[in-house]
Amino acid sequence: MKKILAILPKSIGGRLTTESLISGFKKNGFEVVVFDELKDKILPHLNFEYIIGYDYSPLRIKIDNNLKPPCICYFSDVIQSKTAGVEYKDYYKYLFNKDVFVFYWDRALSLKEGFFYMPHFVDCTIYRDFLPPKVDVLFAGRLDTDLRLKTYLELNKRLKNLKFRFCAIERHYKDAIVRCNSELERDIIKNTYFGFIDNEKDMARVINEAKIVYNINSQGISSLNYRSIQTLACKRLLISDNRLELDLFGGIIPIWDDIDDLVKKITFYLSDSKQYDNIVQKARKLIELNHDSAICTGRILEIISQAGLYNF
């Protein structure tokens, strides 16, 4: 069995995405050895077919340790920015080496910069419908911008009869409290904060426990973030801000334009189970066909093979 060295990065979003990448390689018949940047100190030196991972993490490990296997980097952060790693200026030039394959989650950026396009994917055996909902609305992410914070607070104020929840690391929770303008707003944050999620199974559980997940994408030009695919895989309704790559789902995903529109759509879909079920059923089928980790990792392998450098 061929071996893969997978780099599990320090960033939380990166760890979740890498877990899906790992599961995809396993399902395509590879043995995966994991190096966890948070826990491990000694890099395993075995005969690996590739080094895989999120953003610059696998490339940095390859270059710094003079490793020979080809490198597969999956980016869902803007490549030429600190969000992809503070060291991006040092390693960007290596992305163009013939033994480095870069897959980018954003279609527009992929076309602009000449990297391979691969939207987010998940392990559909983990992200599925397996628990009844406990809350009405979830925002799974940090309230780090004024738009995100104001939208969340306004929804809670207008839809007082609904149960809300948001998940983020503790420092982003504390930051949101500091940026609130009143005791009422601080209480909203304190009473709806659900803590920090750092693994796929718990994230799938939290999404399952919500009826609706609304989304505000913060990076890229055209792309959907990881939470979008996670939500649809769990057969929960996603209400998204307007992104070009919603066309991957044939126009079935509800889009919100402003706070009034978002309030209206949340209220409508919570009251109309037929419309709700129709959307989530169709979306789940499209996830299974196009965004499952085994399928997308298989496509990655096909693309590399077609490059004529490696035959797998």
Indicate the percent of residues in helices. Answer: 40-55%
For this structure, the quaternary state is single chain
Classify the beta-strand content into a percent band: 15-25%
Please give the number of β-strands.
Answer: 10
Low-confidence stretches: none
Backbone shape: globular
N-to-C terminal Cα separation, in Å? 12 Å
The neighbouring-strand order within the major sheet is: 2-1-3-4-5-6
Q: Mean pLDDT, rounded to whole units?
A: 95
Largest sheet: 6 strands, parallel
Secondary-structure element string: EHEEHEHEHEEHEHHHEHEHHH
Number of helices: 12
Using only C-alpha atoms, the radius of gyration works out to 20 Å
Structural class of the secondary structure composition? Answer: alpha/beta
List keywords for this structure.
single chain, 312 residues, alpha/beta, six-stranded parallel sheet, four-stranded parallel sheet, 12 helices, globular
Would you write up a description of this structure?
This protein starts with a strand and ends in a 6-residue tail after the last helix. It is built from 12 helices and 10 strands. Helix 2 links the parallel strand 3 and strand 4 (71-75). The protein has a 6-stranded parallel β-sheet with strand order 2-1-3-4-5-6, sandwiched between helices. The chain has a 4-stranded parallel β-sheet with strand order 8-7-9-10, with helices on both faces. Helix 1 (12-27) packs across helix 12 (293-306) and helix 6 runs antiparallel to helix 7 (183-192). By secondary structure, the protein is an alpha/beta fold. The model has no long low-confidence stretch (mean pLDDT 95).
